[in-house]
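HUMAN: You are asked to prepare a plain-text protein record giving the amino acid sequence and the backbone structure tokens, both parts labelled.

ASSISTANT:
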Amino acid sequence: MAINAYVLITLQSGSEKEVLKKVASFEEAVEVAMTYGEYDAIVKVRVEELSQLDKFLTDKLRSLPNVFLTTTMIAAKQIK
């Protein structure tokens, strides 16, 4: 059963388009959206195992330049 998670991201101002284009190229990223408010972006991530989510967050997403902060929420149950 696939694991869905939502990652809220805080970025360096002015880097949004460049960073999100890179994030969108990652196979784990199902949806990528720029947002207004407390966070600069949200990414829907789908993986098969928690170890893959950990690898995505630490090795891919958080290692990108201009990514300051991430907050991850794992979906407990998909309704629709």
Q: What stands out?
A: Helices lie at 16-24, 50-61. Strands lie at 3-11, 29-34, 41-47, 67-74.
